[in-house]
Amino acid sequence: MSYSSLANKYIPASADNYMRGRGGYKVCKITPHHMACTWSAERCAQSFQVSGRMASANYCIGSDGTIVANVDEENRAWTSSNYYNDCQSITIEIANDNTDTWTISSKAWNALVNLCVDVCKRYGFRLNYTGNANGSLTEHRMFTATACPGPYLHSKMPQLAQEVNARLDGQTVAPTQPSTPSAPSGEKYSVSTPICTNTLSVNCYGTGKVYKGDWNGTIGRVIKGAKYPYRVDRNGVAIGWTNDTGIDTDPHVPGGTTTQSVQTVLNSIPSDFTRENATFYPNTTLKIRKAPTEKGIDTGFYYSNGMSVRYDGYVKREGFVWISWVSASTGERRWMKAGVLNSKGYNTNPYGRFV
What we know:
The chain is of the alpha+beta class. It is built from six helices and 19 strands. α3 crosses α5 (157-168). The longest helix is centred in the first third of the chain and has 18 residues, at 106-123. The two termini are 23 Å apart. 41% of the residues are buried. Residues 177-185 and 255-261 have low confidence and may be disordered.
């Protein structure tokens, strides 16, 4: 068991939420993430104790500056949606001090700088932010369709490298204060409005993947002035963000009979596909479909408790994780829901066990 002496607490992740060892790689990178919520460091670490969540981090930092160790440094945490990055990186989840502009507190920033300095000293490297995966300071957004670490922390990556390297060189750096966002403008729709939309963005700023399709739900949050200001919720789960154009150009309303075309068969590997060879053991009965959508053609087959399926990857769509494999009998690709995503895109409510 190894973690930084700066850690205030140790709350270990569930053993099935990280990989033992680092696949022969050495630590030479740091990847900061944002929690996309205002959790404490302890609450974040506790969320990774949920078996089957398929996520974890080496450290969690709260807005009060508390540092909680979650996955021992000799092990690869599942944080960045990329095997090679996580095998080489110390991954850090940082709390936001609000969920409108996604800033972090000065205490959290200082704790992050201190932790990065400690990691760099112990493993003998400096931070180099190149804007891509080649640097020693990387971001979740470099590996998958996500806005993480959020627009605020993303803008601070060059400064983080500069402050950490200055500390490594023995210089004193003044603490950084989060910036104050400008005043927002009004929006057309309000919270609790039922809507249909043909556009979903993975975040309100439009800095990640934007999907075209057909979705319905209820507006769960409005961030005024954002490019995609409306968070679309379905059954209490956020499925994405949309805007006036997406809503107004959709030809029907929830419960209406007119529908748009949607891909009901998907045999190819889509751009948002994450490769992962593993086995899924469902704890409930789950339909097998021909596309990763609830409107995908039902094959008439299913997996249920006591059965298992070997899959080669997954996508995150419509608020769910959809695992996929190629049918041995037909040679066609199959899709099945395997869990419900939270607002950050983590599988916090799996429909079974991943091995």
